[in-house]
Design goal:
By secondary structure, this protein is α/β, with parallel strands linked by helices. It is built from 7 helices and 10 strands.
Length: about 210
């Protein structure tokens, strides 16, 4: 059976991604979709991006960390954090290729009954009118979309499509009435988690270590 496998935030954790690949026994006909944040904070960012560029089974939406690196290359944003600076140094030799790839990543991937975004959707706002900032940074519905304090968007969202997202790490997948969060904090020493759309099954592998605080 052809599978659609949604993977949580990778953040340059290539070894864990390969362990998940092996545990899932990935087939040639399978499709792998990441919820974004392919890079930054982990140690093997180049290998992650190269895999997604090389293997047509792999695709991703744009995450906020991916976007920050892209905006730096475009001259729109300074690299303000050590993890960003380390990632930029690692990717420097191939930055033109990697910038072109990141620039082509969509903000959302429509899987029919499900929709993949990095952070979230603003309840009550049509899909076409969602802002880039909400799609890549939204957590709660207060004045600061990035805040962890307040009403989580996914507890309110009740749209037509089930939204699968990342961005906000938790010990277990986050769940709302019509949403599922897959960031289980691999880069922080927890787990990398995948969800098989056709069967509703979860698969995860432990992080080798904590790469970031």
């Amino acid at each position: 059976m052809k599978r659609t496998i949604i993977v949580g935030d990778i953040h340059g954790c290539y070894d864990e991604l390969m362990a998940l690949h092996d545990k899932l026994n990935l087939h040639p006909e399978d499709r792998v979709v990441c919820v974004g944040d392919l890079i930054v904070k982990g140690e093997r960012n180049r290998e992650v991006v190269e895999l997604f560029m090389r293997d047509e089974r792999f695709s991703s939406v744009l995450g906020n960390h991916d976007r920050a690196i892209l905006r730096h290359w475009q001259g729109l944003e300074a690299a303000s954090k050590p993890a960003q600076e380390a990632c930029l140094k690692e990717l420097d030799a191939g930055r033109h290729r990697y910038a072109a790839y990141l620039a082509a990543l969509p903000l959302k991937i429509d899987l029919g009954s499900h929709l993949v975004v990095h952070a979230g959707l603003r309840p009550g706002v049509s899909l076409d009118e969602q802002s880039v900032e909400d799609l890549t940074e939204l957590r709660t519905l207060g004045p600061d979309r990035t805040s962890r304090e307040g009403v989580p968007w996914y507890e309110v969202y009740n749209g037509e499509k089930i939204v699968i997202f990342g961005h906000w790490p938790a010990d277990e997948p986050r769940r709302g009435p019509r949403s599922l969060g897959l960031d289980t904090g691999c880069v922080y020493g927890q787990r990398l988690t995948a969800y098989v759309l056709e069967t509703g099954e979860f698969t995860s592998v432990p992080a080798r270590r904590a790469y970031s605080e």
